[in-house]
Amino acid sequence: MEFTELESSLREQAIRSSLMAGKPKLYYFNGRGRMESIRWLLAAAGIEFVEEFLETREQYEKLLQDGALLFQQVPMVEIDGMKMVQTRAILGYIAAKHNLYGKDLKERALIDMYVEGTRDLIDLIRVHHKFSPEEQEKNLALINERATARYFPVYEKVLKDHGTEFLVGNQLTWADVQLIEAILMVEEKVSTVLSKFPLLQDFKTRICNIPTIKKFLQPGSQRKPPPDESYVVTANRVFNRK
Amino acid sequence: MSVKAKLHYFNGRGRMETIRWLLAVAGVEFEEYFFETREELIKLQQSGVLLFQQVPLVEIDGMNMVQTRAILNYIAAKHNLYGKHLKERALIDMYVEATMDLNDLVMCHPMQPPEGREKNLALIVDKATNRYFPAYEKVILKDHGQDYLVGNQFSRADVQVPETILMMEEMKPDILAKFPLLQGFKARISNNPTIKKFLQPGSQRKSEIEEKMIPQVMKIF
């Protein structure tokens, strides 16, 4: 290669990598799993991100050998010079950095309580596809029961008592993003689940119209579909599960 | 001294124990209300104080706080145990989330049927010695010369990691055999005055659940 060609190629690479340096990079399967809440939060915050999908055991072993996975687990997100692991740690960092974690300790406390609640509900759905058909029937009943008797009544009441558009304070927070994620996930399984929750229906309409979220909900976005057979097969292969 | 927090749980470790540790280390006096039967838990649920019908519940600063992590985050942030800035917080969160994963395994262990106990113990020991402890050993190695896991100052990570180590040692006394730096870390942290006090008999620290109590506890929940 001629010297000038080499120079301009290096310059090109440097520009490209400095453009990329700003973007978080997500390491996970090409599916929802534990990474989906992170995709939601980044998208809601208007943060562009790139993804590397795990498809082979070799990719996973390379990440392990490179020391990229602190506890040998994914999700892993390269962000701001860190290789972050542990879903809640990553979500907490993104929320705090992008002004989605309330304005003081007490708002933070409310947000934390609310997201822990929706996290429990999302986790029920996250593992649903791993069950046998009989177990799935039971799990579906559990998801419906928990959503309509434990979690959604709480958020309906919060919206009622709070009287504003959002769950906490006067602006969008992590709590709102995770709730809309949970609502849409439950609706995929139980389409009428919001029938007794008029304020949550309004909430859903409002939040889905926020430009960054509206964009994330459109086809072609980085939002992932519900898990299917190939997702299970890939995960088992990567983690050497029988 | 006035009591600053009220804890509602059963008289055992469970999900409340880490909260007890953190309050003790933060110097926050707390009162405990134990329920012993399912009826008492139901009464608490009916009273409307449990946001999601679950315990732990901690009454603190005018709030009825539920969800273990929400409570721990609040105590840590309020009492300067959460690092000096966002990136330190991120490290602390990574380290404590991992201890909580390990704690969950320990907490669920007594609920295994007797036939499954030995295998489950082996699984927990394997995770501790091959996944979690090597990571912490490496953190201490990298920050050689510092007494604490993050940012050269005491944080909740320096409470939660030792808490987990001590619980693991109850299950397998020589579990730190291959981790000299963690041994040193544990010894140093155990000498911290508030932790030392909490480790003494008569403190509000709870002991391991007794085998004969397990059916009773499971009935409550």
UniProtKB/TrEMBL annotation, chain B:
| Residues in the signal sequence | none
PROSITE patterns this protein is in?
GST_CTER, GST_NTER
Q: Which residues form the GST N-terminal domain?
A: 3-83
GO molecular function per UniProt: glutathione transferase activity
Has the keyword Cell wall biogenesis/degradation been applied to this entry?
A: no
Query: What Pfam families is this protein classified in?
Result: GST_C_3 (PF14497), GST_N (PF02798)
- The yes or no answer to whether the keyword Ribonucleoprotein is present is no
Q: Which InterPro entries match?
A: Glutathione-S-Trfase_C-like (IPR010987), Glutathione-S-Trfase_C_sf (IPR036282), Glutathione_S-Trfase (IPR040079), Glutathione_S-Trfase_N (IPR004045), GST_alpha (IPR003080), GST_C (IPR004046), GST_superfamily (IPR050213), Thioredoxin-like_sf (IPR036249)
Stretches that traverse the bilayer: none
Name the enzyme's class.
transferase
Ordered alphabetically, the record's keywords are: Transferase
- EC annotation from Swiss-Prot or TrEMBL: 2.5.1.18
Q: Name one GO biological process term.
A: xenobiotic metabolic process
Domain spans labelled GST C-terminal: 85-209
Recorded family membership:
Belongs to the GST superfamily. Alpha family.
Q: What protein name is recorded for this chain?
A: glutathione transferase
